Every structure is written in C-alpha cells, then in structure tokens.
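Lecture notes, continued. The same structure-token format from the folding unit now serves as the input rather than the output. Read the line below as a description of shape only.
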C-alpha cells in the first residue's frame, strides 16, 4: 500500500486524545517566557538577572579582577591625593581638579558595584537598584551644593544635557560606525523622551510665570508651586517604574524592530557576592560624599582661579565628571551593537534626573530650609527643553546612524561654548 505524503499524514493516531486548548496555551506561554528571559538581560532598567552559573571568587580576588577590568580605575590613585590636598593647603584650583579626577573612577565603581549586587537579586529589585544608584553621584554632589547654599550651581540640568547630547551622541556615533543603521526599542526610547519633555515642562512653567511677572522668585507662591510640581513629577516617576517593571514589562523586553538586535549570549562577569557588592557600594558612596563636599566648597575659588564662570563649571565640568560611568557604558554597549542598553543608560539616566533627582532636591531643600525652587534660569531651562525636542526627533523612528550622533555632539558643543560666556545671576 502506497504511503501518503508526510504533509497529508494525520498528526495524531486514531483514538489518541487531543491536547486541550488550555494545555496548548500553557505550552505557548512557557515557550514565550523562556524566550523573553533570554532577551531581557539587555533592556535598560528592566534588565533581568539570571542566577550566576559561576561561583563568585573570594572578595579580595574578585575586587582585584573588577578593578583590572576597566582602565578608568587607574584614576583611583588620585582619590587619596584629593582627600589630603585640602589639608596640605594646596592651591584651590589643584584641589578642585583632583576632586573631579577622583570622582570619575568612583562613579564608574558605583555603577559596577550596583551591577554586581543586581546579578544576585530578582528582576524587579535589579531594576530598582539601577534606578536608585544610577545617578547617585549627581544626587550626592547636589545635596552638598544645597547644604552650602549654592542654589545656582546645582548641576542637575547640566547632567541632563550631558546625558542627552554628549553621552547619547557618542553612543549613536559608536553604534553607527559599527553598523550602518543601529536599531533599538522604539517604545522604551519614546517613553523616556516624552517623560523627559514633561519633566522639563514642569521646570519651564515657574520660569515663564516669573518672566511674565506673575511670580517673584523664592517667594511663598513660587516655592509652593515648585514643591507641588515636584511632588507630581515624583509620583509620575513612580508610576513609570511600575509601568516598566510590572504592567507593561513585555513592551521593554521585546527586540526592537522585530528582533533586529541579537543577544550574544554572554553572561555578565561575576566578581563579587551579594555581600561583597554591598560593601563596595557603601565604601564608594562614602568616598563620593567626601569628595562631593570638597567639590562644592572649592568650586567658586577654582572658577576664579581658572578664570571660568560658575555656570560653565556647574553645567559642563561637573556633569562630565559625574557622568563618566554612563558615558563609558553607553559607548561600549553601542559599539557592541546593544543600542537598547546604550539608550537605556543615556535617556534613562536623564529621565531619572528630571523626574526623580530634581524633585527630591526641591523637597530636600524644603526640609533643610533652603529656598530651592524649579527655576534654574530662563536660558538654562530653554536650552534643556530644546535639547529634549532634538532627542525626541532622533529616537522617534527606532533607529539611528553616525550622522545623528555627530548632530547631537555638535549641539552639545554649541551649548558648552555659550556657557563659557554665560554668567549666572545670583538668586534673589
């Protein structure tokens, strides 16, 4: 008897029980969960940490391997010099320069220690750790600046400019050199860019009201408005974290443009145990706090010694030093073809500053009886707003190229050149 073609053969023998629709659905869901878990490791704040397959080395051996993994950590040699420079009565410009140099590797170590802790935790806690410690350097510097009453040199807007134009521009340039048209998760990028615009709108409203004569800076109405907007922005940030980590997690897990980016299957190196990572987090945070206080106390004297304006130091130099870790990570990931990670670092960091760090600073100023409001100056706020618009147009199609990176870098150079001549007026 002639055998029927394979395509015409019945899939099941007669009398064999057919699988139920519920079992088929469960099987499909299980397959999708496995595929999703493999992709989530390179998705910005929603990074999923698989259980490490290798046992972490001893604390000392792991610390040595971690410090040897990045050439930036050679600058750690400047940390003890920066800590004793003030006590030795070195020139104030030298003290400030050493403090900036020492902040660079410490910011990188803070990010690395956060990653090591996140490897040993769940996906949700991993995302919260990245969100909390991602901008710890900027937050610590801003707190000490606030304690010393340096309301006009809080470098938070400069950090947004540095991340959106400098870091993102270098990432697009690096990715465009490696690949003709790098693609990324459009949903995540547009969400971050839109939230950034809303946050900058919250900064622009009090400034415009002051400009048209409806507010007087640092009066009761201005402070009430700024604190109310800060509470609203902070709530929006919490809702975005919940949206990203819980209700719509799948939108941030899927590959951009139908899976254009391939996962190379490489596991994150495991240098430390959970306890070891927490020890490094504590040590680095204390060192950054000490150097941040030294930075803020020597800023005005260093600006005068270097013949630079406080605006240029606060909006250009300090953010570049504080964002060294983000800059290095974004460029490296973009060159490896992981544009989702690069954009998660650059845009995600800017969004966290605008929706979390700035509102927290305003509320802390309320507690510390410092009249910090959301008025960072008309020129500064308008520059940040225009930059957020440029970034939105860059990321809206879910792909980029090296020319767009050059455009972002050129925009940042224009702003830096303008701040070189800009003089910040003293607050009323």
């Amino acid at each position: 008897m002639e055998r029927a073609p394979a395509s015409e053969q019945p899939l099941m023998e007669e009398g064999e029980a057919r699988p139920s629709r519920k079992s088929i659905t469960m099987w499909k869901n299980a397959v999708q969960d496995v595929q999703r878990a493999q992709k989530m490791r390179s998705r910005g704040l929603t990074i999923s940490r698989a259980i490490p397959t290798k046992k972490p080395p001893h604390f000392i051996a792991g610390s040595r391997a971690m410090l040897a993994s990045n050439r930036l950590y050679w600058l750690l040699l400047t940390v003890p010099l920066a800590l004793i420079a003030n006590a030795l009565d070195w020139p104030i410009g030298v003290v400030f320069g050493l403090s900036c140099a020492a902040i660079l590797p410490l910011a990188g170590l803070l990010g690395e220690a956060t990653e090591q802790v996140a490897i040993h935790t769940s996906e949700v806690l991993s995302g919260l750790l990245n969100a909390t410690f991602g901008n710890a350097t900027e937050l610590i510097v801003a707190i000490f600046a606030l304690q010393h009453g340096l309301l006009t040199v809080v470098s938070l807007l400069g950090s947004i400019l540095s991340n959106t134009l400098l870091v993102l521009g270098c990432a697009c340039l690096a990715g465009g050199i490696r690949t003709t048209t790098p693609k990324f998760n459009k949903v995540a990028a547009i969400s971050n860019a839109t939230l950034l615009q809303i946050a900058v709108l919250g900064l622009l409203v009090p400034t415009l009201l002051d400009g048209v004569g409806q507010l007087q800076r640092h009066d009761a109405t201005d402070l009430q408005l700024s604190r109310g907007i800060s509470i609203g922005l902070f709530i929006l940030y919490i809702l975005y974290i919940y949206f990203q980590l819980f209700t719509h997690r799948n939108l941030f897990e899927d590959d951009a443009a139908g899976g254009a980016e391939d996962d190379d299957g490489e596991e994150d190196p495991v240098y430390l145990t959970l306890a070891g990572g927490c020890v490094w987090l504590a040590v680095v945070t204390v060192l950054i706090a000490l150097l941040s206080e030294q930075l803020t106390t020597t800023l005005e004297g260093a600006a005068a010694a270097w013949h630079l304006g406080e605006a240029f130091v606060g909006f250009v130099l300090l953010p570049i030093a504080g964002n060294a870790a983000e800059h290095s990570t974004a460029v490296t990931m973009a060159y490896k073809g992981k544009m989702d990670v690069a954009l998660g670092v650059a845009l995600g960091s800017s969004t966290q500053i605008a929706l979390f760090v700035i509102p927290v600073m305003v509320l802390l100023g309320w507690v510390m009886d410092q009249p910090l409001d959301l008025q960072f100056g008309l020129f500064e706020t308008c520059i940040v707003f225009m930059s957020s618009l440029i970034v939105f147009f860059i990321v809206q199609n879910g792909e980029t190229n090296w020319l767009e990176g050059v455009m972002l870098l050129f925009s940042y150079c224009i702003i830096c050149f303008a701040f070189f001549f800009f003089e910040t007026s003293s607050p009323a």
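Point for the exam: The CA atoms of residues 143 and 361 lie 7 Å apart.
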